[in-house]
Design brief:
Length: 228
C-alpha cells in the first residue's frame, strides 16, 4: 500500500471514530479569528479541559478586543487561572487585545504578523489562521501531531522542530486534510494514541501503523520507547 492510500484510510477510520470523541477546544471558534487567537495562545502547554474552562470564563467577561481591554488584570487572571503559566498569559491577553484593537479589530492573516504578538509562536499562529480564517497553508503541529506522525512513520524519528515536522507531514498528507489534521490527531492522541501508554491493542488503525518508537512490554500492553 502506498503512503497516500494508507494515509487516506487512516484518516477515514479515525475521522469516523472521532464523532464519538470530545471535540477540541479550538473547534468552537471556527470563523472567529480573535477568539481563535486568544484560545490558541492560552492552550499552549495546557490540557484541553483547562483551556476550555478558561475560555468560557474569559469570553463570558469579554469576547472582543475593546471589551477585553476594559477588564482589569485581576479579572483576566481570575478567568484564565486554569491554564499553565497564567501569570504571563494575563500580559499576553492584554497585548493581543491592544494590538488587534489598534488594527481596527482585525486579526492579522500572516504568520509573520501574528508571531510579533507576545505569547504567539509559530504553532499558535498557524492554528489561529486555520481556525479563524480557514487558511491552511501549513499543518498545525503540537505534541500529539508530532508524536503520532513519528509513530505512523510519516515524520523522521529525529525531527523535533514543529515547522520541520510540518514540512515532512505535508509531503505525506493529502492537501485536503491539512486543515483538519491537527484537530483529528489531538482527539486520537487523547483517546487512543496516548503519550506514554498507547492503546495499540485496541487501535482502529493498528494494521496501518508501523508503531515507530513503541514497544510491547507484555502481550497486549504497549509503551513509548526510544525512537533512535
Amino acid at each position: 500500500m502506498d503512503t497516500e492510500t494508507r494515509v487516506r484510510e487512516l484518516y477515514r477510520r479515525i475521522d469516523a471514530a472521532a464523532k464519538n470523541w470530545t471535540p477540541t477546544t479550538l473547534s468552537y471558534y471556527k470563523g472567529q479569528p480573535f477568539k481563535a487567537l486568544i484560545a490558541a495562545m492560552l492552550s499552549a502547554q495546557t490540557r484541553e479541559e483547562q483551556t476550555f474552562a478558561a475560555m468560557n470564563a474569559l469570553f463570558t467577561l469579554a469576547d472582543n478586543p475593546d471589551d477585553m481591554l476594559k477588564l482589569t488584570d485581576d479579572q483576566i487572571a481570575g478567568a484564565i487561572q486554569p491554564v499553565m503559566y497564567w501569570q504571563s498569559k494575563v500580559r499576553y491577553v492584554r497585548d493581543i487585545a491592544q494590538r488587534v484593537a489598534d488594527n481596527g479589530g482585525v486579526v492579522p492573516r500572516t504568520i509573520d504578523e501574528l508571531t510579533a504578538y507576545k505569547g504567539v509562536g509559530w504553532k499558535v499562529a498557524v492554528l489561529t489562521l486555520a481556525t479563524g480564517y480557514g487558511i491552511d497553508a501549513d499543518i498545525t503541529v503540537d505534541v500529539h501531531v508530532a508524536r503520532i506522525g513519528r509513530r505512523l512513520g510519516l515524520v523522521k524519528p529525529d525531527t523535533k522542530q514543529p515547522p520541520k515536522v510540518n514540512e515532512e507531514l505535508k509531503q505525506a498528507i493529502p492537501r485536503e486534510y491539512w486543515a483538519t489534521w491537527n484537530g483529528l490527531m489531538v482527539q486520537f492522541g487523547r483517546e487512543v494514541c496516548k503519550p506514554t501508554y498507547p492503546q495499540c491493542a485496541a487501535c482502529l488503525v493498528r494494521d496501518l501503523c508501523p508503531q515507530v518508537g513503541v514497544v510491547e512490554t507484555s502481550p497486549g500492553r504497549f509503551k513509548e520507547g526510544d525512537y533512535l
